[in-house]
């Protein structure tokens, strides 16, 4: 059993979460690490199960070979917290746990988790899909993500993707230059936000739009946010032109 500070905990696990993401995992590293802290209390046990995955059907996978441990836990049934014991999967390595969880998330019930386009939405979809019975599960994950600035690991996971310049048009006039990275367009928050009449700030970790933190990446020392998040805040429509690599915003 390995006891660590919170930062040591995240530093130990982040390389595995980032590697899995780069290999195609649908899980944002920020959500994954928040879940790991919530499920383990910040302790890495010898059985390497970081997300409370139970034995379930018992069918082995390329990353789980059938080993298990029986542990005390709790669930919420009909609004009541009930203490139980359950059989949990035991993994040879931390990486095996992450890859086995990705296999679990291929089940149809978790489709909304896999297609979530932000860490906050993914946390909510984990709860909505029944991953855990705790009615506060999503809010706890989101709180941990923000408290420990875990989105920095999402940025790191995406850092290897090549960035392509994108022209951003507002009401048919060139407004800014953004970047296309792995299918998502990022735009300069402060410059474009002001043109859209939004209040742009910085909380030390992320760009804020009208006081609300937004998914953030740093390009050339400036904060960028996904164009759709900025457009949503401004009530603007977004259109993408593939041939000219242009984003058009209109209201």
Describe the structure.
The chain is α+β, with helices and mostly antiparallel strands and 251 residues long. The chain contains nine helices and 14 strands. A seven-stranded mixed β-sheet has the order 11-12-7-6-5-14-13. A three-stranded antiparallel β-sheet has the order 8-9-10. α5 (119-128) packs antiparallel against α6. The longest helix has 17 residues, at 6-22. It is elongated and about 65 Å long.
Summarize the structure.
With 251 residues, the chain is α+β, with helices and mostly antiparallel strands. The protein has helices at residues 6-22, 29-40, 94-104, 111-114, 119-128, 137-147, 151-158, 189-195, 227-234, and strands at residues 2-3, 43-44, 68-77, 80-89, 163-170, 173-181, 184-188, 200-202, 207-209, 212-213, 217-219, 222-226, 237-241, 246-250. Helix 1 (6-22) crosses helix 2 (29-40), helix 1 packs across helix 3 (94-104) and helix 5 (119-128) packs antiparallel against helix 6.
Feature tags:
9 helices, single chain, 3-stranded antiparallel sheet, 251 residues, alpha+beta, 14 strands
């Amino acid at each position: 059993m390995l006891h660590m500070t919170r930062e040591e905990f995240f530093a130990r696990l982040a390389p595995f979460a980032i590697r899995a993401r780069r290999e195609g995992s649908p899980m944002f590293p920020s959500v994954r690490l928040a879940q790991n802290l919530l499920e383990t209390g910040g302790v890495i046990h010898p059985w390497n199960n970081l997300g409370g995955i139970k034995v379930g059907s018992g069918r082995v996978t390329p990353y789980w070979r059938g080993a298990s441990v029986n542990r005390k836990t709790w669930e919420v049934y009909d609004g009541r917290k009930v203490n139980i014991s359950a059989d949990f999967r035991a993994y040879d390595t931390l990486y095996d746990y992450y890859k086995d969880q990705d296999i679990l998330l291929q089940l149809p019930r978790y489709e909304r988790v896999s297609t979530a386009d932000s860490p906050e939405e993914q946390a909510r979809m984990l709860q909505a899909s029944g991953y855990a019975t705790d009615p506060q599960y999503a809010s706890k994950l989101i709180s941990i993500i923000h408290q420990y600035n875990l989105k920095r690991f999402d940025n790191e996971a995406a850092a290897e993707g090549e960035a392509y310049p994108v022209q951003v048009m507002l009401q048919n006039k060139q407004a800014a230059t953004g970047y296309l990275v792995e299918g998502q367009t990022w735009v300069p928050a402060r410059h474009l936000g002001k043109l859209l009449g939004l209040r742009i700030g910085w909380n030390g970790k992320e760009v804020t739009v009208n006081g609300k933190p937004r998914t953030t990446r740093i390009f050339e020392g400036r904060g960028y946010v996904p164009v759709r998040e900025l457009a949503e805040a401004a009530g603007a429509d977004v259109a993408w032109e593939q041939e000219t690599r242009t984003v058009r915003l209109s209201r």
